[in-house]
Amino acid sequence: MMNIIYKIFFLLQAKMESGFIHGISLHGIQHITMGFADDTFIFAKASEENIQHILVSLTPFSEASALNINMGKSTLINISTHHFHFPSWQGRKIERGVLFRHLGYPLGMNVSTKDRIEWVLCRIKSKLNLWHVAQWPLHIRIRIVQSFL
Q1: Cα gap 9→72, rounded to integer Å
Q2: In sequence order, which residues have a C-beta less than 8 Å from that of residue 70 and are 6 or more positions away?
Q3: pLDDT score of 37
Q4: What is the largest CA-CA distance in the chain?
Q5: How would you write the pLDDT of the chain (149 residues) with one tens digit per residue?
């Protein structure tokens, strides 16, 4: 599955380098995609034409691999543009400055440190609740504690 996702990355990178689609520039380097687990983030210039070119670029890949973009789960997120109007977009839209969550982690502009720390602590607590430490032998518990010291 990951090989297929990487092929999407390479396809979009090649389309960006050819000038057919436009990504974003960070520190002078052009970027278009990033993946995490089975999620793909596409960073693109905020224009109706660019979004259509990206979707058109993915169509042959979808047909060849039998993998389709689920527009019901897809979200267009405005991170910096003032004119955010895409009438042909069928998925969800999130305006600039709105706090949203991805995999439970708070994202968006001005996410407070408190929210980020609460998320991390909640994740740690949920993992610790799965551990049945009292059932582990003493030498294992000591070794775990030593590995963190």
Answers
A1: 21
A2: none
A3: 66
A4: 63
A5: 557 777 778 888 888 889 999 888 878 888 888 777 677 788 888 888 888 898 888 888 888 888 887 877 888 877 777 777 777 777 778 777 777 777 777 777 677 778 777 877 787 777 777 766 567 777 887 887 777 66
Of 84, 23, 20, the C-alpha closest to 48 is 84
User: What is the 3-state secondary structure of the chain?
Assistant: CHHHHHHHHHHHHHHHHCCCCCCEEECCEEECEEEECCEEEECCCCCHHHHHHHHHHHHHHHHHHCCCCCCCCCEEECCCCCCCCCCCCCCEEECCCCCEEECCEEECCCCCHHHHHHHHHHHHHHHHHHCCHHHCCHHHHHHHHHHHC
| Encoded amino acid at 104, one letter | G
Query: What residue type is assigned to position 91 of the chain?
Result: G
Question: Looking at this protein, which amino acid is placed at residue 9?
Answer: F
Residue 133: both structure tokens together: 């430490």
What gap in Å lies between CA 62 and CA 68, rounded to an integer? 5
